[in-house]
Amino acid sequence: MSIAHVHRALPSIALSSASREPAGRQIYRQLKELILRGRLRTGARLPSTRRLANDLGVSRNIVVFAYEELKAEGYIVSQFGAGSCVAATFRRGPVDRPWRAERRQPERRLDPPPHAIEPGYLIGRPFEVDLPALDVFPQRLWGRLAANRCARSLRELLRSADTGGYLPLRQTIADHLFETRGIQCAPDQVVVVTGEGQAISLAAALLIEPNDAVLLENPTHVGVRQILRAAGARVISVPVDSRGFDARAAELSQPDPKIALFTPSSHFPLGFTLDPAQRTALADWAGAREGRWILEDDTGHDLLSPGLWQSPIWTRAPGRVLYFSSFRRTLAPSLRLGFVVVPDKLVDAMLSTRLLADGYRPPLEQAILNDFIVAGHYAEHVRAMRGIYAERHAVLAAAVAEHLGDVILPEPSLAGLHTVCRLPATLSDAELAERAAGSFVLRPLSAFHEGATDANGLLLGHAQLSVRELRREVRRLAALLTNCAAYQPSLRRAM
Asked: Taking the model in full, what pTM does it have?
């Protein structure tokens, strides 16, 4: 579609519905090309985002994304009340290559050879459960993207103060969710947060009144219960196991719960995924009565094999679900970047709550992450992480079977950063974890349960350790446990 009639200074732009390149990227790329080729000269005014969106038949947010990217790179400038125009000075360079060509593989190997890992690299003590594979984080690539951002748009980013987060990243996340989950949402519905904890805190502040009943999986993160109770919720535990939960029991456990918080893709700590029937049951529960909400924690989705992907609960009840995730398992927890997708009617209230909580996330790391995703590096990195985590889980399981298999039974891990190892009833997981605390981080499975439980096992983080480190640390753990007085009776009984 030609937009030549929109503004005399703007030549035609054509959007291709057959292209896999998002519309916002098409607009950005074509405008950048027009500027670089001199067809849009210094000072040329661009049409307003609303007017250009109307002529192209796209959402205004898509045009805003294109303008924000051009502004961040110094190609255009904007003044309040005067619109946008081509910048007076910018570094002319080659026209962008086609979008598909930008999705190149990272130059650096994602799993470096052993000699590339620094001695003493290990962060914290062995077997921590929430640390990703930091030894294969693409630090050189990330550094180059950071340097590029600082060189071309740092001043603009320092002025940015969007409560919902850096707008191009919100657009990119919306595109990513559509491609990988089938979630259709506008960038305005995506709010950048520091992680799952803040997503739950904001949702709780927004939705929970004192003494509201909230359905919550049991076992789960202890911190989640604390966040909900701090918001005044009355937490109702829903027992779950490797098969998920009993929908009828969850419904009958409380006459009128208002909120249900579930992790359908990769439950913590058990690691199971909810099947389609259970997801539909939750969506039906939310739709049965006005005022019910589902908080869907889908942090583990990207690390699941695509063959295990299931449609999120959001797609079954989009107006009743707050969907959230983070990049801590796939990239690094210290980046403190996640997002929550909010139904349309809650967007303004969520932004107000976000503003009162801590203002907004600084935009530089958001801009770097946006570049990382748009160029295809994130998809490539995640594919590599799936293979790396699967290999490390297999090595850990084999080493445990070899050195501790007479008592400890490791379970499969689909997408987690840890392996659940079951213990016999004669052996206390809490006591073993305490005995090993000086050298290892062994999380007792029983500690994640609310109330009395017969759950007995240890969580061993496998993601943070290389293959060589895993074998070495399991041997050290075996030496410690087999000399432990608490372990000996169970060992003798197993023999």
From this structure: 0.74
Tell me the mean pLDDT in the region 186-201: 95
Return d(Cα 40, Cα 18) in angstroms, integer: 27
Please give the Cα distance from 302 to 290 (Å, whole number). 32
259-262: strand order across its sheet = 190-193, 338-341, 321-326, 293-297, 259-262, 213-218, 234-241, 244-245
In this predicted structure, what is the pLDDT of residue 300? 87
pLDDT number for residue 487: 60
User: At 441, which CATH number?
Assistant: 3.90.1150.10
Mean pLDDT on 171-179: 94
Structure confidence at residue 104 (pLDDT): 38
pLDDT value at 280 more than 80: yes
pLDDT digits (tens, 9 = 90+) for 8-52: 446 678 888 777 677 888 888 888 888 887 788 888 888 888 888
73-81: long-range pairs with CB below 8 Å, 24+: 73/32, 73/152, 73/153, 74/152, 74/153, 74/156, 75/31, 75/32, 75/35, 76/31, 76/35, 76/46
- Indicate whether 213 and 311 sit together in one domain: yes
Looking at the structure, tell me whether residues 185 and 306 fall in a common domain.
Answer: yes
Are 277 and 347 contained in the same domain?
yes
Segment 390-411 shows an average pLDDT of 93
Look up residue 222 and give its two tokens.
């202890």
DSSP labels, 384-449: HHHHHHHHHHHHHHHHHHHHHTTT-EE---SS-SEEEEE--TTS-HHHHHHHTTTT---EEGGGGS
Domain extent at residue 219 = 162-359
Residue 97: the pLDDT is 39
Who's near 192: CB < 8 A, 6+ residues apart? 164, 165, 166, 169, 170, 337, 338, 339, 360, 361, 366
User: Are 245 and 341 found together in one domain?
Assistant: yes
The structure tokens 């935009």 sit at 363
CATH value at residue 348: 3.40.640.10
Residue 50 lies in a domain: yes
Stretch 369-373: mean pLDDT: 95
The torsion angles phi and psi of 204, rounded to 5 degrees, stand at -65, -45
Mark which of 50, 82, 102 sits at the end of a domain.
102
Here the tokens at position 312 are: 């999120």
Q: Is 249 inside any structural domain?
A: yes
- Mean pLDDT, the chain, rounded, equals 83
Evaluate whether 383 touches 106 at the Cβ level (below 8 Å).
no
Distance (Å, whole) CA 73 – CA 91: 10
Do 346 and 430 lie in a common domain? no
